[in-house]
Design goal:
The protein is α/β, with parallel strands linked by helices. Helix content is about 20%, strand content about 25%. Strand 9 and strand 10 form a beta hairpin. Helix 2 packs across helix 3.
Length: about 240
């Protein structure tokens, strides 16, 4: 379980630019509508007709399939609706109590480096978790953010147990990003049992509440926003 190599995660705008729009959707957001909105917004950003945007949502329970999803990793196809997401990665779960952040940024005005952008997203999550005294870590062979679980039995080979607390899946078109991250605040963890999350077996899934931290979504969003600004620059709440 080696940590992934260090990458410069600075993604501040290279030139003067308006603050990133920061939007929080109330209630549960329909997934198909979210896909359509991101497609449109990414195109407008590329054309210079809209500002960059971070859009925070919660979805009703559903599974999404990335471009690398394997059919065998969908263990219970009838449990929840399944959507082809068009992002990178494999199967993941979205549902109430999970904070999904859709990140629509113009990398041409920041840095044209997709690998470093993914590392910056991981850094953003890790910095957010740190504000709740949770140590999130990245791994060389596993995208996402992980927490060690010394309270759980060792893995085969005597390795310490680890659980995934956050997933990352992005798409980039003409250097504008969309899709983004999901962090487990207080979802129903049993809902992950219908898939092999991100195609990675042998590991568990956790949340802030599962770790003994009764964090509200509102408090989590405040930490998420502050950590985003440290890595990506200023925001403006809309």
């Amino acid at each position: 379980m080696s940590e992934r190599g260090q990458i410069d995660t600075a993604f501040q705008p290279r030139f003067a630019a308006p603050p990133v729009e920061w939007r929080v959707a109330p209630g549960l957001t329909d997934y198909a509508a979210a896909l359509a909105f991101m497609e449109e917004r990414a195109g407008l950003i590329r054309e210079g007709k809209a500002r960059e945007l971070v859009w925070l949502v919660e979805h009703p329970p559903l599974y999404t399939a990335g471009t690398s999803a394997k059919s065998d990793d969908l263990l219970d196809a009838g449990r929840f609706p399944v959507f082809k997401a068009g992002r990178g990665g494999e199967y993941t779960y979205h549902g109430p109590g999970q904070r999904v952040a859709y990140v629509m940024l113009d990398l041409k005005s920041r840095r044209e480096d997709i690998r470093a952008f993914v590392a910056a997203l991981e850094h953003w999550i890790i910095d957010t978790l740190r504000r709740f005294n949770v140590t999130g870590e990245r791994r060389e062979d596993r995208v996402g953010v992980w927490v060690r679980r010394p309270d759980k039995p060792l893995l085969p080979g005597g390795l310490p147990a680890e659980d995934k607390i956050a997933a990352i899946g992005i798409r980039v078109r003409r250097w504008v990003t969309f899709h983004g991250i999901s962090v487990n605040v207080e979802p129903e963890l049993a809902h992950f049992n219908g898939i092999v999350p991100c195609g990675i077996s042998g590991y568990g899934v956790t949340s802030l509440v599962d770790l003994g931290l009764p964090v509200t979504m509102e408090d989590f969003d405040l930490a998420l926003k502050a950590a985003f600004e440290d890595t990506f620059g200023s925001t403006e709440r809309r």
